[in-house]
Design a protein that fits this description.
42% of the residues lie in helices and 12% in strands. By secondary structure, the protein is α/β, with parallel strands linked by helices. It folds into 2 domains: 19-32 and 50-69, no CATH class; 73-276, 3-Layer(aba) Sandwich (Rossmann fold), CATH 3.40.50. Strands 4-5-3-6-7 form a 5-stranded parallel sheet, with helices on both faces. It has a two-stranded antiparallel sheet with strand order 1-2. It comes from Rotaria socialis. Residues 1-16, 48-61 have a biased composition (Polar residues). Residues 35-44 have a biased composition (Acidic residues). Residues 94-269 form the 6-phosphofructo-2-kinase domain.
């Protein structure tokens, strides 16, 4: 797996697209054109490969040129990640079910990447499903859960969140043991203990293949925009004033940041890809 994955980095606001530009035409024709951004009110419609509009003679460079001219911030974040992960998941020599584990602080685009990746993999014929731990938490805790719920010192809330993660993990493993080929575990997974628990269960108990995708962004402008455009529309803040919701979510990020341990090769013994988007690292 490690041979199939390389780190995707950006310098300031520019993604590294070398891997995409160097793809041979045969591979380009296999994967199809880079997808356009979805309509806001229907962000993840079913995709039919027959609707691919790129003509056979159209070059990959032409696709990339058109993509670079797009003004969509979201479109500029992830295509390189899709190419690398889809190649790893399409490996015909290893038919082991694969777990892609998201890592990162809130408002870093993890769910966006997870859903776009699942949609792309499904489009190229790989049975993929996203398991969002936040959805399990919202089912368990009805109504508004304030920042106190995410305090690591709140033992009762920690127990509930751990149970939600465990339920999501069990459902994900059941999916992969039946019809699934790839599952995306969409959660913050910011502590090494959590990553180690999920990794060991998937690898040692279920014999799955696991690697992490870490999304890192330290641009406050982008984080604030993500909160306003995405988080305020979340069921977590239904009926809550925008000013109160923004303040609460920023406090939630601070609570996660206290425990956040980025992935490193010494303490996280797994294949991983870190995507630095709109970052100044």
């Amino acid at each position: 797996m490690s041979e199939s994955i390389s780190q995707a980095r950006t310098d300031s606001n520019q993604l590294n697209l070398d891997d995409m530009e160097n793809l041979p035409d045969a591979t380009a024709k296999q994967y199809g054109a880079i997808e356009q951004e979805e309509v806001e009110d229907d962000p993840f419609p079913d995709l039919n490969p027959q609707n691919n509009t790129r003509k056979p003679q159209q070059s990959l460079n032409g696709d990339i040129h058109a993509w670079r001219k797009s003004h969509s911030i979201k479109n500029k974040r992830t295509p390189g990640v899709f190419r690398q992960l889809s190649q790893a998941c399409r490996d015909r020599l290893v038919r082991t079910p694969t777990v892609i584990m998201m890592v990162g602080l809130p408002a870093r685009g993890k769910t966006f990447i997870a859903r776009k990746l699942a949609r792309y993999l499904h489009w190229i014929g790989i049975q993929t499903k996203v398991f969002n731990v936040g959805d399990y938490r919202r089912d368990a805790v009805k109504g508004y859960a304030g920042k106190e719920f995410f305090d690591p010192d709140n033992t009762e809330a920690v127990a509930i969140r751990n149970l939600c993660a465990q339920n999501a993990l069990e459902d994900m493993c059941n999916y992969l043991q039946n019809e699934g080929e790839v599952a995306i575990f969409d959660a913050t997974n910011t502590t090494r203990e959590r990553r180690r628990t999920v990794y060991n269960h998937c690898v040692e108990a279920c014999y799955f293949r696991v690697f992490f995708v870490e999304s890192i962004c330290d641009s406050q402008e982008v984080i604030q925009a993500n909160i306003r455009e995405v988080k305020l529309k979340s069921p977590d803040y239904k009926g809550v004033l925008d000013t109160v919701a923004v303040e609460d979510f920023l406090s939630r990020i601070e609570l996660y940041a206290k425990q956040y341990k980025p992935i490193d090769g010494k303490n996280d013994n797994t294949d991983h890809l870190s995507e630095f988007w709109y970052s100044y690292r």
